[in-house]
């Protein structure tokens, strides 16, 4: 008995397609469905038609750190392979608020917040993507046009039971935590974006998997070939444990000064360095494997970390800034004072050391200043301060807290 549904013949995979598949999978958490994506790549090569690759971002936080760039790096790699990347700004979905990974309803943003954040977001994302080859879209283009009738028709295509398969919805329901009806619309609207854009591949973090799958199902429902899904892991921060986050203060911001950025890269552990190489570096996997083999063979891991730090700084600043940042780091490690330290004028001499540190913005509070003195982390003109009761006399001194905070303080009576 033969099936009525014709199965399209499988295209052979060229070496170029296999290489593109390996690039797509590098560092990825999951590629669904790999065999389908391989066929999309093969068809693209055969027809010369680039794949449409979508990344949707709700502009909820305008400042990006290296953790945000993991998925942007993947977009750039696929862009370099000749595919069309679509940077989708969720100006409509931001008004709903993404409930992913949350145990409460996310407050929606105002139109003004969305527009301001979106501009900042794309400007920073363009430090990774090639802006001249990036299609920028706003999902209000098609979401606004749906209207109430279209929204009801879209909602009829998905069941409540399917929505409740989402882990965070299930947990909230069981815990008796309120779930607003509009939150069910978020995955539907994100999925409809894929229909509107005829997406071939959608990228996202691991926490977005459910939403990405909704897009795949809706495309089938609308008679389109379903998109494939590529999820990227969440990058650990400088502590090597928690995900990179500003609130946890374990982040490297992509607009931070070059010297700060380089020093932060140098502070990660030798083990975590390879994770950063895999997810952030443009070096080929063969090059990274050679570096790792060299370190395992006795080479100094610091040299590999310096190369990583310089690569990252050069990407967001310049090659010259990377060289200068290395020189600054070496100077500081020898106890030297960097050239570009802030100048601070204070009065009230003689001034207690903890008060001086706080007023010079070197610590957040006097109690933190006391702690830093206790830990031997405070220096004046290169000498360690051990007396918490020290009162600093009038004059100009260079004050250092930890490895990276400096200020040239001029203190008057």
UniProtKB/TrEMBL annotation:
Q: Which GO terms describe its biological process?
A: tyrosyl-tRNA aminoacylation
* Broad EC category: ligase
Superkingdom assignment = Bacteria
List the catalytic activities from the record.
Answer: tRNA(Tyr) + L-tyrosine + ATP = L-tyrosyl-tRNA(Tyr) + AMP + diphosphate + H(+)
Q: Does the keyword Flavoprotein apply?
A: no
Q: How does it assemble?
A: Homodimer.
Localization, per the record, is: Cytoplasm
User: So what EC number does this one have?
Assistant: 6.1.1.1
What protein family does this chain belong to? Belongs to the class-I aminoacyl-tRNA synthetase family. TyrS type 2 subfamily.
Cite the GO molecular-function annotations of the record: ATP binding; RNA binding; tyrosine-tRNA ligase activity
Keyword Cytoplasm tagged: yes
Report keywords, A-Z: Aminoacyl-tRNA synthetase, ATP-binding, Cytoplasm, Ligase, Nucleotide-binding, Protein biosynthesis, RNA-binding
For this chain the motif 'KMSKS' region maps to: 243-247
One of its Pfam families is: S4
Q: Which SUPFAM superfamilies does the UniProt record give?
A: Alpha-L RNA-binding motif, Nucleotidylyl transferase
Give the function comment from the record. Catalyzes the attachment of tyrosine to tRNA(Tyr) in a two-step reaction: tyrosine is first activated by ATP to form Tyr-AMP and then transferred to the acceptor end of tRNA(Tyr).
Q: In this protein, which residues make up the domain named RNA-binding S4?
A: 351-412
Q: Which residues bind ATP?
A: 246
**Residue ranges annotated as motif 'HIGH' region:** 59-68
Stored CDD domains: S4, TyrRS_core
Protein name stated in the entry: Tyrosine--tRNA ligase
Where does the protein principally reside? cytoplasm
Tell me which InterPro entries the record gives: aa-tRNA-synth_I_CS (IPR001412), aa-tRNA-synth_Ic (IPR002305), Rossmann-like_a/b/a_fold (IPR014729), S4_RNA-bd (IPR002942), S4_RNA-bd_sf (IPR036986), Tyr-tRNA-ligase (IPR002307), Tyr-tRNA-ligase_bac-type (IPR024088), Tyr-tRNA-ligase_bac_2 (IPR024108)
């Amino acid at each position: 008995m033969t099936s009525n549904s014709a199965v399209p013949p499988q295209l052979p995979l060229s070496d170029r397609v296999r290489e593109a598949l390996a690039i797509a999978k590098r560092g990825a958490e999951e590629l669904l469905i790999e065999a389908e994506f391989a066929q999309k790549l093969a068809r693209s090569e055969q027809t010369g038609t680039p794949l449409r690759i979508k990344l949707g971002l709700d502009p909820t936080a305008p400042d990006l750190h290296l953790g945000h760039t993991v998925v942007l790096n993947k977009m750039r790699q696929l862009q370099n392979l000749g595919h069309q990347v679509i940077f989708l700004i969720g100006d409509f979905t931001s008004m709903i608020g993404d409930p992913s990974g949350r145990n409460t309803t996310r407050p929606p943003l105002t139109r003004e917040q969305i527009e301001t954040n979106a501009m900042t977001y794309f400007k920073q994302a363009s430090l990774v993507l090639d802006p001249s080859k990036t299609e920028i879209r706003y999902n209000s283009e098609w979401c606004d046009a749906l209207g109430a009738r279209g929204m009801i028709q879209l909602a009829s295509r998905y069941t409540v039971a399917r929505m409740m398969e989402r882990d965070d919805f299930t947990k909230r329901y069981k815990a008796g935590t309120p779930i607003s009806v509009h939150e069910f619309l978020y995955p539907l609207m994100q999925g409809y974006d894929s229909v509107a854009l005829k997406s071939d591949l959608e990228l996202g973090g691991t926490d977005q998997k459910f939403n990405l799958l909704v897009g795949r199902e809706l495309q089938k429902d609308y008679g389109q070939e379903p998109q494939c899904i590529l999820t990227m892991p969440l990058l650990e921060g400088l502590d090597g444990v928690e995900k990179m986050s500003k609130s946890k203060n374990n982040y490297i911001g992509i607009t931070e000064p070059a010297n700060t950025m380089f020093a932060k890269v140098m502070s990660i552990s030798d083990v975590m360095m390879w994770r950063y190489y895999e997810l952030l570096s443009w070096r080929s996997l063969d090059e990274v494997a050679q570096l790792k083999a060299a370190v395992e063979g006795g080479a100094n891991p610091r040299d590999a970390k310096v190369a990583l730090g310089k690569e990252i700084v050069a990407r967001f600043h310049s090659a010259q800034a990377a060289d200068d940042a290395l020189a600054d780091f070496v100077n500081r490690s020898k106890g030297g004072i960097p050239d570009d330290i802030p100048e601070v004028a204070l009065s009230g001499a003689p001034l207690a050391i903890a008060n001086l540190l706080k007023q010079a913005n070197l610590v957040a509070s006097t109690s933190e200043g006391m702690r830093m003195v206790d830990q031997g982390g405070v220096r004046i003109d290169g000498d360690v301060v051990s007396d918490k009761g020290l009162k600093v006399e009038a004059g100009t001194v260079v004050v250092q807290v930890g490895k990276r905070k400096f200020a040239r303080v001029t203190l008057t009576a």
